[in-house]
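Look over what follows to help learners.
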Amino acid sequence: MNVREDFLEIVKEIQENRDKEFEMSPRDFLSYFHCEKRTKGNNARIDSFLTSKNLETTPHYSAVWIDGCIKLKHKARARSKSDSDPILRISILPSANKPPITINRDAKLSDVITLMMMHNFSQLPVMSNPKSVAGLITWETIGIGITNGNTSKDVKDYLKTKVVILELDTPLLEAIKTVIKEEIVLVQKKDKTLSGIVTITDISSQFFTLTEPFLLLEKIENLIRLLLDEKFLLEDLKWVCSDDEPAEFIDDLTFGQYIRLIENEVNWKKLNLNIERVPFIKQLDKIRIIRNDIMHFDPEGITSEQRDDLNNMANFLTELIKYN
């Protein structure tokens, strides 16, 4: 299509900066294509050009008064709802975001012992100044010092000076390797102030939070398969599957297909369960929604209510199978 050169410059600018928009009237817009009227033929050629360049006008140039206002812009692109960092970092750990109590290297041993006993701490960071770590003092370093005849009353004489300090944005997998090797690491912000202490216990706790929902879901799905096992004919499975993806085993079904299979009254009767179908299906659908959330992997884990729902369903299915 014959298009004016100045319009091609506009097109180029939009394609280079997809957030760029140009306001104009439909009359001026048509003039770029050497057109005066919005006939079917003109519109078809213009629309074809716009499509080839991934452009659109809002509103559509044909639906606005000829001297009204439209915006020429790049077609909207599908985006993720989440703008989150695709890499899990040590900052997801609660302990990495809890600034620790510290003590100055010139303090007395009795001061640090008091603090550690009061707060049930195993260690304390020792600082030369607010942004400089002198080391760590732990029950272990105190015990070793006393065992080796150290009679000093000063904190600085019981230090573990080799301390690993990680940045708050350190990738979690990289941090895990370090924590396993060192058993404890300090975490600092960009301004070099401490943001937390991370131990092997913290790593274990976080991974339990992340993996528990997956384990509960696996248990629920295995119990559902056991509940459905040998209760249906293959032709019953075809009813909930597409022709392109036939199922030969119960295991081939998705969670949603489990629900579709047994929400049918005829199929429900084949299970011969002495429970009400509607509330059971309703709760299974709730589990399906939780499952979708889990599979999108939120590092913050699931809510306590969702965890209760998963536990309750797993326990209920266990009892249901036991008595049937």
In short: The first strand starts at residue 21 and ends at 24. The first helix runs from residue 5 to 16. The mean pLDDT is 89. Residues 286 and 309 are 8 Å apart (CA to CA).
